[in-house]
Predict the 3D structure of the following.
Amino acid sequence: MKISVPTQLLVEGVGHTATVAASKSPKQILECIALRADATTGVILEATDLDVGIRYHLADATVESAGSLVVPAGRLLSIVREIDEEEIVLEGEEGNLAVDTGRSQFRVRGENVDEFVRLPFFPEAESATLPADLLHGLVRRTRFATATDAGRYALHGVLFVIKKSGVEMVATDGRRLARATAPISGGVKQELRAIVGPKGLALLERVLAASGGEVSIALLDRQILFRTGGVLIVSRLIDGTFPAYEDVIPKSTTHFFTVTVADLMAGLRRASLLTTRDALSVELLLDPGDGVDADGERSGNITLRSRAVEVGEAKISVPVSYEGPPAKLGFNPVFLQDALKVMDPAAEVTFSFTDAKAPVIMSDGDDYTYVVMPVALE
């Protein structure tokens, strides 16, 4: 095998595939990237940890001779990141990889290519095709809310539903829930419902952030496949039954207030400075006020307060639009910040609530619902 590749293209491709290869595994082959060169298909990079896999096509690579090699992902990534020449030549030498840039030469020990797990190919009939930016937004606004603690396995993934009317993604860890929806035009070839793991979605989000166009989606042998441009992502589905999340979202609330995302984010960041692991909560003290803002709407104020005996107390004032009675709510600030991070900083976020013990809804539009449980206040 001998190929020449633009350095920037190789850095990007190895960067994506290296995130999939296991950092530490009893099977050393899972810590590797497979390089496959063919005069017809071009140059392809592959990696898998058995849960997630990626096939990445290097579109502008030149194949001088065909072949396949498997090398440690971390080693290859470290090497290509250090190269500042415009083009790199990769050549197989008795199962090892030679990297030559003219001024620098490296020899990387290869692994047995026959031991590398082959990834599936995208089936001829996909289930659906979605705009890449739409899917990227849905993943970004839900993935963070998946569970990480041991327990109900289904909560460790994101529910992904595609119907003729639209697409929906839902994630919950039992203490908060994120739901994002979007309409789609043209319908779908086949309705889809699956629980997708967060690692596969994190990879998809990363790839889609740098791409445009469309994403083709298909189910195959308990796996979900995403294809966009020259990239194929494979993620094993999570077994189990996703909870009836509709029952978690309050059907009605009695009060609400609105606040600018950037203002609340800044206030929470400051209030969090005086929290501890044992006192990880921030009080929101709502005051309707008695003034009128520039738009002629009644103005109000939130005081964000954090207290911990061993570190002290913080009080941060944030302007809001609120017309209800004085109220006090308590939250884990991390849960609020996670949702605010995926919103437009200039947007208005609405908090809908009934009392200090009932679930609270955060939303920056009809297509996004974030439900979070308050924490008990002393």
